[in-house]
Amino acid sequence: MTDTRPVLQIITASTRPGRIGPAFAEWFTRVAEEHGGFAVEPIDLAEVALPFFDEPKHPKLREYEHQHTKDWSATIERADAFVFVTPEYNYGYSAVLKNALDFLGHEWADKAVSFVSYGGIGAGTRAVQQLKQVVTTLRMVPIFESVNISFAASKLGDDGRVIDDPLMNLAAVQTVDELLRITRLIRP
After folding, report:
1. For residue 34, what are the domain limits?
2. Which of 7, 8, 92, 158 gives 20 to 30 Å between its CA and that of 109?
């Protein structure tokens, strides 16, 4: 039987050694899978390993020359919604995420998006504010609900996994609920 649920891609946006983003991505993936409204697909930009933008033609033309771009296009094309799991670096988001976004154009459009942001006292929210400008330019639909994790390292146990936090769990469920509601409106 074919899964007819919309596809939610959860994209880990940090690639640096020692990163903690994968722990938050794994946690959010579990929450989204338990929710059941989406077919969930985790994506780690460290594994995608896109080079710095190297396509000779503008992404709006969709005339990709490199196989890595064709593969990235096919990956993003199959999604119906996104969650970016993003740190905050110097009041902004990672260059790796900006590069991944800029590689494509049409593939991002008309899809709901939210964020799991993490950092220190600011919880990654300054990165999200910058990202909202970029995703709306790509014709994505950012929702209000998100998960913002302050003092992120303190939310991890000795095993490196996210410690159970009822408020974080509630925020995650509310985010998935709203992503599903908006996805059903814009991608019936």
Report:
1. 7-186
2. 92
